[in-house]
Amino acid sequence: MDLRRALRVVGAWWPLVIASVIISAGVAYAVANAQPKAFEARTALIVGQSLSGVNPDYTQLLVSQRLSTTYATIADTKPILEKAIARVGAPETAADLAQRVTAVAAPDSALVTITVRDTDASRAAAIANGIADELIAASPALQGRGKELGAAVEQELAAVQAQITKTQTEADAIANRTGRTPADDARLETLQARLVTLRSTYASLLSFSSTSAANLLTVVEPATAPVDAVSPRPALTALLAAIVGLFLAVAIAFLADFLDDSVKTESEVQDVVGVPTLGTIERMRGGKRRELYRLAMAVYPRSSAAEAYRTLRTNVEFTSIDRPLRSLLVTSALASEGKTVTTANLAAAFAQKGTRVLLVDADLRRPGAHEIFGLPNVHGLTTLLRSDAAGIHAVARHTEVENLDVLTTGPLPPNPAELLGSQRMRALLADLISAYDLVILDSAPIQVVVDAAVLSPLVDGVILVVDSSRSRRGSLRQARETFARANAIVLGAVINGVKAGGSSDYYESARTPAAVPGRDDRAVTGPVPDSRSD
């Protein structure tokens, strides 16, 4: 499907597309606007002393990164959450709070981010800070040390530091003394050896100190009460719903187009039937009027419909440049596709050019030509086929359209197919062709009965009427195969009932129809009814 085809499909379904977008956006906005607001508060913690250390140890950094994942995992556990709830005084359980808490450890980093969602902004910030405080309080226990051990280590470090300072002061005083005695030198050696021991002890205690531990937790950014809610977002929700509604409507349009096997365009007719399109006739709307008003060539000669039939006449003439057409058969695949109206207007178009035309209603099942021209159907085609006494000009009826005669069906026979396929019909058709410049036959639908298939080899060309909304690909393919088996010459197709693409003078001309001499209803005005009629 090319872009133009896609645009045509979407354009044909534009009311559904617009309605789907508006309804989806409106419903989504209303639902989102009715939801309670939710706020998110975040607090960030760092594991270890990578920020405060002048020369951070690489091993401690790796340990801190591993520990950050552990802290993020236990941040939403029941003990931590229960202590945070008790600290804040929130009226909920740990299970309810766990659904609104998210703890994430950043990859390749020692940072832990705790996010809490709540309908109250201040409470969300308080809970986030409470969870952070509980993690900090629980962090020494993670390495198997209690708070008492940490405090004892800190006290020992302070005592050793004091002894180092005192010993270093005494050693410096002896070293700077002039005229030292042997006793002073011995004392200096003893002090220096003690300094070495004290510094070794201090280094050992420092490795157990919490101030340099790789698992020390520190709050980097405390949580604050957010100002804006993170949800709902009615505008964003409405926009997303509108996009979803748009795609859904477009998908429905393409699905309907895929499932629709009707033939609407000239290219589709060419692909299915294998013949060119000789003309396109717009759909003629209007109230229920007499059949006369379907004859646009006579009643509305200045309308766009009449101009379309003139174009059809010209294209038919172009199909027979080398050999003039003396007989035509107009049919359709199925009933109610507009073949009779098309036949009548095409015959009138040729007659207005000066061609002596005879329109033969060969639809011996559901005749309609006599209704369009307002003629009696007492005698007609069956009369000529049944008796040699009746003459052609005695049975054929003149019409208000100059140069146009109509041969109605006459009494309907019980065996139409046999009658139309008889030698009598062949001889009669030859006589009709010799009496007129052009004979146009209106036949029954080819997929309904075999009448058109029987008549098609007897004429110079066949015109297939295709309704843009009713004709189906399957029936047109079967019609093509039927004509091929009958060795018929299909000149082309006429697409009937095409949706008008813009303004037309048809309806303006419909207000002032042309006078039809010899008719009592020639002054009646009004639009032409639907052209799809047999």
Which SSEs are present, and which pair or pack?
Elements: H1 3-12, H2 14-34, E1 39-47, H3 58-74, H4 78-88, H5 94-98, E2 101-105, E3 111-118, H6 121-138, H7 147-175, H8 182-207, E4 217-221, H9 234-259, H10 266-273, E5 277-282, H11 296-299, H12 304-318, E6 327-332, H13 339-352, E7 357-361, H14 369-373, H15 381-386, H16 392-395, E8 397-398, E9 404-407, H17 416-420, H18 423-435, E10 438-442, H19 451-455, E11 461-467, H20 473-485, E12 490-498, H21 506-510
Structural description of this entry:
By secondary structure, the protein is α/β, with parallel strands linked by helices. 49% of the residues lie in helices and 13% in strands. It has helices at residues 3-12, 14-34, 58-74, 78-88, 94-98, 121-138, 147-175, 182-207, 234-259, 266-273, 296-299, 304-318, 339-352, 369-373, 381-386, 392-395, 416-420, 423-435, 451-455, 473-485, 506-510, and strands at residues 39-47, 101-105, 111-118, 217-221, 277-282, 327-332, 357-361, 397-398, 404-407, 438-442, 461-467, 490-498. Strand 11 (461-467), helix 20 and strand 12 form a beta-alpha-beta unit. The longest helix is centred in the N-terminal third of the chain and has 29 residues, at 147-175. It is rod-shaped and about 170 Å long. It starts with a helix and ends in a 24-residue tail after the last helix. Residues 141-146 and 502-532 have low confidence and may be disordered.
Characteristic key phrases:
12 strands; alpha/beta; 534 residues; 21 helices
Portion in helices: 40-55%
What coarse outline follows from CA principal-axis ratios?
A: rod-shaped
How many H/I helices? Answer: 21
Number of strands: 12
Global structural class: alpha/beta
**What ranges have pLDDT less than 50 throughout 5 or more consecutive residues?**
141-146, 502-532
Overall average residue pLDDT: 81
* Percentage of β-strand residues: 5-15%
Cα distance, first to last residue? 34 Å
Q: Strand count, sense and closure of the main sheet?
A: 8 strands, mixed
Physical arrangement of strands within the biggest beta sheet: 5-12-11-6-10-7-9-8
